Structure prediction request, 747 residues.
Amino acid sequence: MAKWITDYVKCNSMLVLVSMLVMLPNAGCTNDATLPQNPSSTADRTPTASLVSKQFDAPVTVTDRLGRVVEFDKPSQRIVSLSPETTELIFALKLGDCVVGVTEFCNYPEPATRLPRVGLGIAESISRESIVSLRPDLVVCRWDTHARLIPTLERLGIKVIALGPQSISELCQDAMTLGKIAGVSAEAVAFSESINGEIQRLRAQIPNQELPISPGNAESRPEAENAPAPRPTMDSSKKLRVYYELWNSPPITAGPKSFIGELLELAQLENIFDDVTLPSPQISFESVISRNPDIILFPSNESGVAVAEQVEAIVSRKGWENIPAVKKRAIYAIDGDRMSRCGPRIVEAFKELLQLIYPDVDFKLNTPDTPPGILESKQAGPQRNGPELTGPEKVQL
Amino acid sequence: MNSEEQVPRAAWHWLWGSCGVLLCVSFLSLALGSSNISFDSLFAILGLPNSKNLTSEEKEVVNNIVMHLRLPRVLCAMLVGGGLAMAGVAFQCLFRNPLADPYIIGASSGAALGAAIAVLLTSQILIAGLTAIGVFALFGSLAIVFLVFAIGQAMGNRSALTLLLSGIAISSMANALVSLLLYLHNRDAIATIVTWMMGSFADSNWNQVGFMALATALSLVWIWGASRKLDAYSLGDTTAQSLGLSLKFFQIQILVSASIVTAFSVASAGIIGFVGLIAPQLARFVVGTKHSMLVPLSAILGALLLVLADAIARVAIAPVELPVGIITALLGGPFFLCLLLRSSNSGIVK
Prediction:
């Protein structure tokens, strides 16, 4: 017994040592004060860190999505991100070097996949002690699914902000919040400008002409109240009617109040469920039939089933054969990771969406690496690498 | 009626032995978790002599993990396990059915319903240091259990089986109401309620340990203290009354104490089934049906089961944590079945 314990102890101390060594390369943004025994950490500093201090006037106060007011004395330099979209956002703000921990679902950008993991998506699965052992000065969590984590982490003296945007404007707000905390407000402004600019640019490329697929039964529906932006005038009866299938069993769609609904609306599409109030309501197959969509969209790589099979499954649903979208086989998959996360790649998702609906137009993004104006000098970051946008995954059978 | 004399020596051995095992397992589980903490560091944090010196940096991290995350959750698991097991013994005796446990009788469902309502109204309010969830869970649990019991009374307490069946019916209704609330409400609140219903000690804190200690101590005093009355009650209403037991008062006392400890357990750790059912059964295999032994041994076995399950939940697929209920059932189930098969011939289980 005693020998077993000493062996275990030895083994464990080795592991602690190894894990500390492993953590070193990520310590680039670490403040000297927090790691006194590691002189090497200064050598790893990136230009970001020096830029950081300039934009930070302590104390900085931010309000998160739960209405909590959090005060910061120094820019956050060791960040744990608990959701894929905030991870992408943090990297997009060129703060990738400050991220010290992510979740199993944070698969983009590539450097994020090499960081220590602290759990799956839901609060239940997240290891609080893994977070503590990474010594973060900021944990970015989702306001809805992670609410119960917040008091636990706060008790341990870890600052937590709850984000989780549900629209493009909220995405930009969250970027500003993170920018303030990490002292990269200029970066955040550039990010917002870039996102909004790209969306506007893509929208301007939407053809204002005859629609590629003529609408089947154009029964006019009331517009969603909160139309996010004024759109070019177009007769609403001419709009293509779209059904977005977020999940197939039970069928869940994206309502007009979700950011997916917002993207659909920006793409001049009419959501067949534009009368629902929940962001992602469960609906019935009958209601899809009675609402006659011209296009059916669904996110790919959510279930691992091949796209062609999923399309076939939709086509073979009973009673769906007379739906215009099924007749014309206007059933398309959209990259699920991009489309289902309200993060920086929302622009790419929007482009993919437009490309599917208006196949004759070659939609172009602005040069994705440099948001207009500000960041010409800094190309090195691993983030925002959208130079080659893969062509839309189009399944026209 | 000196029950201590009738308790065999072996039962005392079981009691002290399981106590020792519980303490050992609890201590060892302090060293288990997704972040590796050696026994050296553990000893240093616990202030034991001759332990290694930690740098202030290490000390802060280890101290946070051991003193503010692991120790509260080990203690909380211990208290919830013990409390639910005692509630199980109490309900089983009261309903005169070995299947009655806080989960089946509706105490857990009632607490869940109360908590779901609290989440939908607001989850941010604190009442006397407990969240609204805890307070609502307490009232939900008490309300459901008293409803079940009132129905039993209205039926003239004819049979313990009808009482149990009405408990099952009402707890199903409470569950359905929870599902309905979840279904109709915004998905965001669902995430909160669902994760909470899965049961977990991940967010245990010293506050909860305090409340749980109070609730478990209360039920220990009330339920264990009523051991002889429980023994008498098991013999049937007529016999119990002829032995001088005031039925109504006794039933209410047991109901209230069992409901309180269930509600506090649900409020601090979410819904954890199975413990209240299995721990008393295991204890019965070992020490028989004398409540003076059955109550404490059930409590210790329940505590042991949850401490073990929580430790496994932390390390099984680290750094990802598992809901503790999964481990409880996977761990306790086979053990329970094994005992059941071995003793099915010996006539202990009727």
